User: What shape does this take?
Amino acid sequence: MEVLNELPLIDAHCHRVAGGPVTATEFELCLTEADRPAPGVSYLDTPLGVAVRRWCGPALGLPAGVSAADYLTRRTELGGEATRLLLSAAGLSDLLVDTGIGGDELLTPAELGAAASARVAEVVRLESIAERLATSDVSAEDFAEAYPVALRSATTDAVAVKSIVAYRHGLDIEPDRPTAEDVAAAAHTWLSSAPDRLTDPVLLRFVLWCGLDTGLPLQVHTGFGDRDLRLTRANPALLQPFLTAAEPLGNPIILLHCYPYHREAGWLAAVFPHVYADIGLTLSHIGARATAVLAEFCELAPFGKLLFATDAYRLPELYLVGAAQFRHALGALLAAWQAEGAMTADTARRCATMIGADNARRIYRLS
Ligand SMILES: [Zn+2]
Assistant: This one.
């Protein structure tokens, strides 16, 4: 679809990538949510692995569907230039980068933006700010006051905050803002136990509400991810009481990823004015099924509520695969709907620009 091929996309949820070469083993493990090899099985023989060879070969001057071995050889020959070629082939205008994971081995947000020829804005992880604060000498009594101050300074230039409460507890949280006494008691327990990962449900709720107090949009991880999460507790429908409690504050709340609960997310986006659904990660991992699952995302959610993203992390290939799969899948879906008379060409073009860029520009107040 022409409008999609020409449209610079806003990647509304993504991460930093490695700028240099990666080993074949690292490459394979970056293409799966598994954290360890499976005997006798290659993670390149997956819908995502096949999609990488389909979309990324041509960006490096190789045929689509090139063998994984030839692809990796070419990638190594090109060195850092491969990163630039893959990122610029994705055709992105803006990257909203969650800086909460990865270390110094990854490109900085500025380097990432330069390699992609895109503007970069930051998304700040609520739990990371609490964990950083816990390593200072903050007392349990001061935690409730110190956290919003730390968050405000971390979000000066941010366009959104993000929660990984699905990983740390589950989305079945108590909905309301915790009391000051409950926060102080929970902070006392956490800070006196060599604090590392924030898993206390009271403090997780506290940082969520502090996130809303910034006035910024709130991104929430929902649905699949690595095995660190309990999938059944990552169903966004579990978040309904919190969505209801947060509605009066007016922050947009973006449900990230969603799969396999993308139909639940579509309903939530349909009935809550402040709730949106992100299609990133899902559209990459499901490979050639992207058109079918994107059609399911589009069953109930208003087109003004769906957001393109790649959720790319570590491998620049994931930016290109996410963008190419999105353009291909949405193009195929809208073409099919036009062919059967379900919508006009004009409406199809409007839907494409909404999901690919305009919704993100409006929700995240990008200039
Ligand atoms: Zn992510």
Observations:
- The mean pLDDT is 96.
- The first helix runs from residue 2 to 6.
- The first strand starts at residue 9 and ends at 14.
